[in-house]
Amino acid sequence: MQSGLLIGVNKMFTRVLFFKENEAARTNNEWCISTVKKLKEASPLGLKVSLRSIREGRNQTLDQCRVREYQMSLKGISKQISRDLCEGVRARLVDKDLAPKWDPSCLDNVMREMVDHYFSLLGESEPKLELLTKIARSVLLIGGILQIYGKCPMLLLKCCPMKFYSLVIHRAVH
Q1: Per-residue b or e along 88-111, where b marks 16 or more CB atoms closer than 10 Å to that residue's CB
Q2: Distance CA 85, CA 43 (A)
Q3: Residue 74 and residue 71: Cα distance in Å, rounded?
Q4: In this structure, are residues 66 and 131 in contact, taking their beta carbons and an 8 Å threshold?
């Protein structure tokens, strides 16, 4: 499945670039021209990692997306697979030459294993992302509501028990 995914990613980017280049040439549309230019300037590995992340994220919860993005960020700054993040910072912010030397330099040279690395589990020595649980979010939400209303929890619980419990239940469910 992974090789099929990577083939699909290659085809997708090839089609997008081809379509946008043709549309930009045909219509002289500023947005199309700008989009093609930015896609061609971006890190080929970064493009494939981003597309896979978007595709995986469609079927994940917000917390799952946060964990995935965090893991990808750690993998990117680790420089184990590529120095593209550092190279992009160098080219844009340090030297300001706007001429990054991506490695790999084109989409065809991005191997499946390189993309897979960004989605692999973190090692034992790498810091894990600890997300708030739904109950903890509920408590924080209620704390914020209480600050807005200027009431202590016990007063709100005594005066409006149904409102208090409905806030907790509503927040825990969502």
Answers
A1: bebbeeeeeeeebebebeebeebe
A2: 9
A3: 5
A4: yes
For residue 113, how many C-alpha atoms fall within 13 Å in the half-sphere facing its CB?
A: 2
The interaxial angle of helices 44-57 and 2-27, nearest 10 deg, is 110
With a CB cutoff of 8 Å and minimum separation 6, the contacts of 57 are 65, 68
Per-residue pLDDT of the chain (174 residues; tens, 9 = 90+): 445 555 555 566 666 666 667 776 777 778 777 877 888 889 999 999 998 998 899 899 888 888 899 899 889 888 889 999 889 999 999 999 999 999 999 888 999 999 999 999 888 888 887 776 666 666 666 666 555 555 555 554 555 555 555 555 554 444
User: Could you state, in order of their start, the residue ranges of all structural domains in the chain?
Assistant: 2-118, 134-173
Is the pTM value of this prediction over 0.70?
no
